[in-house]
Amino acid sequence: MSTSDTTVRVVVLGSSVSENSLVGNFILGRAAFDSEAPPDVVERVAGRLKDRHVIIINSPQLLQTNISDHQITQTVRECVHLSDPGPHVIVLLLKHEPCSAEDQECVEKVLRSFSERVYQHTMVISTQEPTQTNHILQNIIQKCANRHFSLQTSSSPHDLMQMFEDIEEMNDGQHLDCDEVSESVKLNLVVCGSDETLKSSISELILQQTDRRSDVELHGCQISLVELPALIRLSEEEVMRQTHRCVSLCHPGVHVFIIIIPDAQLNNEDKAEMEEIQRIFSSRINKHIMILIKQNSEHQTAELNEETQSVIERFGGRHQFIDLNTQGSVLMEKLEQIVEENSGVCFSTETLMETQMEKILKFEKIKSLETHLLSQGNEQKIILGLKLQSMF
């Protein structure tokens, strides 16, 4: 197979900025990567080696054992995006010591995040000479078809390039297919509440911009955010129009309804708005709700008053305190957790129409019972009256 006219895309995974920079610079033969760069920055640098165009995607934090699942997901997605349409080679930059069972578990979790077939494209590079045999490291190398390159025993980047080309040839020149990762995750949000100023400030905090409706990429997710006007200030006709509009804008549906309330005793408007939201969307909305409690810098507490706690429990119990210093990743993890709990199922326009139809049928049944009640004797009226009461 001729590979002389193709690009080789290599993703280098590690746990140390300095060592990742060392390997990236070794491959490219120049100081392309900064050893002082932040560990959470994924860099993409191109160069030439053995008359081949080489692209290095350098991720120096993915193999850290303390990295969260959320960080793994987002960083892997970024690596795949930067190596579009996919990497030819995945390089694991591992140390001989220490290399523990925890390290192996981390490596396997990260690699699975790329693809189930990732080992066909993976190799190990070590920068240190071993002082003794490390069985964990040997297990990882064996899973990579015994592909291992030591910078201590070989100083030639051409030798390393030959290993890259061997991996290419074994895979018939095909890159690793990471389609499931590369598709940007869509997260549709509707921000609700009676305080328009409070809703806007939270929307800006989430999106980091001031559009009333925005589509941006944040933490690897494509976010669509819509602000629902305060329903208590609208006519019934306008309520139906605005709710249908918001859900329609979030195709194929709303993943999370964010209800914003202040960190204070709920006022009548707050309570009325939440009642109206549940009246329109029904209890089906509860599994899609996150209540954000806006704090200010002067009053910080993690406690809820009894009334607020009762309202939150009625809406599913999910809540999060938030202020201007809240990290976006913290909120994103909470929102993605709701999506996972619902297995990605949205509150769609079809769901909204079903809730409205249920209300219409319930109303018609009530009217039918009322008509029947008027034609009955006193004993039958009492029985039918009790049935009517049970429907409210």
TrEMBL record:
Alphabetized InterPro entries for the sequence: G_AIG1, GIMA/IAN/Toc, P-loop_NTPase
Pfam families: AIG1 (PF04548)
Residues forming coiled coils: none
Gene Ontology molecular functions: GTP binding
The AIG1-type G domain, residue ranges: 9-175, 199-362
Keyword Transcription: no
Swiss-Prot/TrEMBL keywords: GTP-binding, Nucleotide-binding
Keyword Iron among record annotations: no
Protein name: AIG1-type G domain-containing protein
Lineage: Eukaryota, Metazoa, Chordata, Craniata, Vertebrata
